[in-house]
Specification:
The complex is a heterodimer. By secondary structure, chain A is of the alpha/beta class. In chain A, about 30% of the residues lie in helices and about 25% in strands. In chain A, strand 9 and strand 10 form a beta hairpin. Chain B has twelve helices and ten strands. The chains are: A alpha/beta, B alpha/beta.
Chain lengths: ~280, ~290
């Protein structure tokens, strides 16, 4: 399979004279028909990576290639039609949906992007709403007339209506109620694979990632510390940080077991390089 | 159940809006908080769990219409005068909030925030209060407590700030602690440490804790008893293990089925979940 997305030694920095290095030389690839999860805790650089991938952030170093071509930075101009095959889903649907447009019109924006690229596909909003498990009747609503979960589904419907071959999703489920998180994540995986697309799924929630990602990359302080097949990383983590992260997840089994707490805040070994933790299969 | 409850909530109702057209938020909640035990209150956003906790301390806006009863020992808290309530707030009932950066004052040193209300409430001298502050910070495992007193909140990590907020809550030796999503803003590795701390403190200080959280993993880790809230009502309650392994109410079964980190699954609940978001529900609004 070909690489849809190639990230090589990506560096993202913020600030002028003494920049903060948010992403410190990471490399990853996303192939068609697979879901790559990028997980980590707040401030590890996962969102900065997502923003650099779609061109919202100018890399301070390294390269982001989509279909082998560098991704140009997003500016005020409309993106080239070819780039609309890369779609993004954000954490907060309230800021990604237009509050003054009906659901049908917003999904139509996605359809228009597909047509401009010459990609075919169903035109009516109702079809795409059904794809994300929403009633067709919601097409006539405004975003404020929907629940948070429904809004995020609309945002997803709009992005898949654009017939993407790559979806970059930055914490797409963390603003949702716990009971719909796993369902929406599973739906995103299904839609993505049905369309033969690839997905970069960014999340801090490892238990959801485990269910939907083919491969997982764990980020800590701007670097990928462990990566590989999701089940391998989950069942047998080798990097000290991954181990601590997995041990800290509380299990909802009702047994009153406290999750393991790290002995110290951010021990030095978490930042250590463990070459055998990378690209595990 | 061993000890008698220190705090009893009976038939609590809360409504917002105008007198003529009130919007009910909490519809008759009963809860008992017992020393040394953590009572969990679970529910999704908008279920009324936070409003329940806030009403105990009279922290709701004046427009809120309250009914029922909240008793702390012999004292009825609902309808208590502000002055009397402020003697109880922080002194006998303390709160820990979700976001420690919002509950700590950014321009005051930790020492100031830890000693100020101790001196107000307990009438300690400056040196006594300072010693107490050091002891408390030590207890919540803030490194180098004496030095920490002179520093400001922004000089600490999120996890340390939450530990400091807990120290402040404990400063006046409260009987009741209301913890509203105390670990939700924290990373999972930091959360684990805070859960240990809350569990230990509840036992060692015989605190009656109300733990409000949407996170059933957190609930399963430290709550002794669990109440599940939906649309302003408690739909199911019971000892932790029973709720997590033998839930009866369809809603509880849905919540657990939806959760990847729970062992419980139920096919009927799975179907209900799949349909929940799709519905054209006219009730849903801003």
């Amino acid at each position: 399979m070909s690489d849809l997305l190639q990230v090589e030694d990506l560096v993202v920095e913020y600030g002028g004279r003494h920049p903060v290095r948010a992403v410190d030389g990471i490399s990853l690839t996303v192939r068609a028909g697979e879901v790559l999860a990028l997980v980590g805790e707040s401030g590890c650089g996962k969102s900065s990576t997502a923003r650099a991938v779609v061109g919202m952030e100018k890399p301070a170093g390294g390269a982001v290639r989509y279909h082998g071509e560098p991704v140009p930075p997003l500016g005020l101009r409309t993106r080239a039609a070819a780039l609309t095959a890369m779609q993004m889903v954000f954490q907060d649907p309230n800021s990604s949906l237009n509050p003054r447009k009906r659901v049908a019109a917003q999904v139509a924006d996605g359809v228009a992007a597909a047509r401009a690229r010459g990609a075919g596909g169903p035109q009516e909003a109702g079809h795409w709403l059904e794809q994300v498990g929403l009633d067709r009747a919601l097409a006539a609503r405004y975003p404020h007339q929907l629940s948070g979960g429904q809004r995020q589904r609309v945002a997803i419907a709009r992005s898949i209506a654009a017939r993407p071959d790559l979806i970059v999703a930055d914490e797409p489920i963390s603003a949702l109620d716990a009971s719909s998180q796993a369902g929406v994540a599973a739906m995103m995986r299904r839609l993505c694979l049905d369309a033969g697309a690839g997905m970069l799924f960014i999340s801090h929630d490892l238990s959801v990632v485990r269910q939907i990602a083919d491969r997982t990359a764990v980020m800590y302080r701007g670097r990928i510390v462990e990566s590989g097949a999701t089940e391998v990383v989950w069942n047998d983590p080798v990097h000290p940080y991954t181990r601590a992260l997995l041990a800290a997840i509380p299990r909802a089994d009702g047994k009153g077991n406290l999750p393991q707490a790290p002995a110290a805040e951010a021990p030095a070994e978490w930042a250590s390089e463990v070459p055998e933790a990378l690209e595990r299969a | 159940m061993t000890a008698a409850p220190v705090l009893s909530i009976r038939g609590l109702t809360v409504a917002f809006g105008t007198r003529k057209r009130p919007t009910p938020i909490v519809n008759g909640v009963d809860l008992d908080l017992v020393p040394g035990r953590i009572q969990g209150l679970a529910g999704e956003s908008g279920s009324g769990k936070t409003v329940t906790a806030m009403s105990v301390l009279g922290l709701l806006p004046r427009t809120a219409q309250l009914g029922g009863s909240v008793r702390l020992g012999e004292t009825e808290l609902l309808g208590l005068r502000r002055r009397d309530l402020s003697r109880i707030r922080g002194r006998r009932i303390a709160m820990v909030f979700q976001d420690p950066s919002a509950s700590l004052h950014p321009q005051l040193t930790i020492g100031h925030q830890l000693t100020d209300h101790v001196r107000t409430h307990l009438g300690l001298s400056r040196t006594e209060a300072r010693q107490r502050a050091v002891d408390l910070l030590e207890r919540v495992h803030v490194p180098d407590p004496a030095d920490a007193l002179g520093r400001y909140p922004h000089q600490f990590s999120g996890g340390q700030r939450q530990r400091i907020a807990i120290a402040i809550a404990l400063a006046c030796e409260p009987e009741v602690v209301l913890a509203d999503e105390p670990t939700t803003a924290l990373d999972v590795t930091v959360q684990a440490g805070i859960l240990h701390l809350l569990r230990d403190l509840a036992l060692e200080r015989q605190l009656a804790v109300l733990l409000v959280t949407h996170d059933l993993g957190v609930m399963s880790a430290i709550a002794d008893d669990v109440a599940v809230m939906r649309h302003g009502t408690i739909v199911e309650r019971g000892p932790r293990e029973q709720i997590f392994t033998r839930p009866e109410h369809p809603y509880t079964r849905e919540l657990l089925t939806a959760l990847p980190e729970s062992d419980f699954t139920d096919e009927r609940a799975r179907t209900a979940l799949a349909e929940r978001d799709s519905a054209d529900d006219p009730e849903v609004g801003p």
